[in-house]
Design a protein that fits this description.
Blueprint lengths: L19 E11 L1 H7 L14 E9 L11 E4 L2 E2 L19 E2 L11 E5 L3 E3 L11 H17 L6 E6 L3 H12 L2 E9 L2 H9 L4 E5 L5 H10 L4 E6 L4 H6 L4 E9 L13 H6 L3 E4 L7 H8 L8 E4 L3 H10 L5 E4 L1
Parallel strand pairs: 8-9, 8-11, 9-10, 11-12, 12-13, 14-15
Antiparallel strand pairs: 1-2, 1-6, 1-15, 2-3, 3-7, 4-5
């Protein structure tokens, strides 16, 4: 009912309209955004059933539904825009003044059932249910790739530094290698996530940072790359790294802010550096219309989810995610 306070409760099964389907939730992924929502940040509205990375089975369809049927395994796009505001009328749905999201501003997937408009639901075939919790993070990665392409439409053989080794960042690293990056370097705290990144082969090089004092690793990264990188992606959501990330951007390069930060986080960059080095600074927030490509990228492969928790163990799932000892955490209602 309010930030930092939750209960497990019985609520009515959502009623669907003629253009909606009812999805029985098999799994719902949990990510850093859920932690911010739990704290009352991001775009959260309470009271709320959180959970925005929904995987499940269609159990009921409205009378106007044509593309889906009972029994279809699916993932669902959590985003929703009004189609009528200043930005929507200019084709910029993601910047919608009334942007809404299942699990953020509307009841979501940490429940047994959730309703979705037909246009937001996509069938999956080869992915296991638990692995399909990565489709929503992959859709965000696809949007991140789109943002980089828009900022650098003629770029090829570019070099990338990715800060952080969370699920969506690692997916973005793989997409970059498939779409023109000549070299991808992942810098992240030493531990399970960097180990998994290596096992997946998401990058060309890895910088494993000492959690207590990474000074030596940062120094070596600078020495090994005196001209920096064409693209630096800050995917940790850590204010300190957001401030320092600009120091690794090559002159004429691009810095993309990709993490979710506390609302009170601030950056202090020298305007003269941005001006003199002609650095582009861009953001990548969530996604719209990226689910089809995310499903296409993932439905033909296999990606492992490391930890699954029951709905009753929501606090344990949050704690596991905060511990940064799991690549991906999912809730099974």
């Amino acid at each position: 009912n309010q930030p930092k306070s939750f209960t497990i409760a019985e609520v009515p099964i959502p009623q669907i309209s003629d253009d909606e389907v009812l999805v029985k939730v098999a799994y719902c992924g949990i990510c850093g955004t859920d932690a911010h929502i739990h704290d009352g940040e991001f775009i959260s509205k309470f009271p709320l059933v959180p959970g925005h990375e929904v995987v499940g089975v269609v159990t009921e369809v409205g009378k106007n539904i044509k593309s889906l049927a009972k029994g279809d395994r699916c993932v669902a796009d959590n985003s929703d825009s009004c189609n009528d505001c200043f930005y929507c009328r200019r084709g910029k749905d993601l910047l919608c003044e009334n942007f809404a999201s299942k699990g953020c501003t509307m009841d979501g997937g940490f429940a047994e059932y959730v309703n979705f408009h037909e246009s937001k639901v996509y069938k999956i075939r080869n992915l296991a249910d638990v692995d399909a919790t990565l489709v929503e993070p992959a859709a965000c990665a696809v949007h991140g790739l789109d943002q980089l392409r828009a900022a650098n439409p003629t770029a090829s053989a570019f070099e990338v530094l990715l800060l952080g080794a969370g699920p969506t960042g690692l997916i973005l690293a793989q997409l970059l290698r498939l779409n023109g990056a000549a070299r991808v370097v992942v810098a992240a705290n030493a531990g399970p996530k960097t180990r998994i990144a290596k096992e997946l082969g998401v990058a060309d090089e890895y910088v494993e940072l000492d959690r207590e004092d990474p000074t030596r690793q940062w120094k070596k990264l600078s020495e090994d790359n005196p001209y920096g990188f064409d693209v630096v992606i800050e995917a940790t959501g850590v204010e300190k790294l957001a401030n320092e990330s600009i120091n690794y951007v090559r002159r004429g390069g691009t810095l993309m802010m990709y993490g979710v930060y506390n609302n009170d986080a601030r950056v202090h960059w020298p305007p003269s550096k941005i001006f003199g080095d002609e650095i582009k600074i861009i953001g990548s927030f969530a996604q719209t219309y990226c689910f089809p490509r995310a499903v296409a990228y993932l439905d033909s492969g296999k990606i492992n989810v490391t930890d699954v928790f029951a709905l009753e163990d929501f606090q344990k799932a949050l704690d596991k995610m905060h511990s940064r000892t799991a690549l991906k955490v999912a809730i099974k209602p």
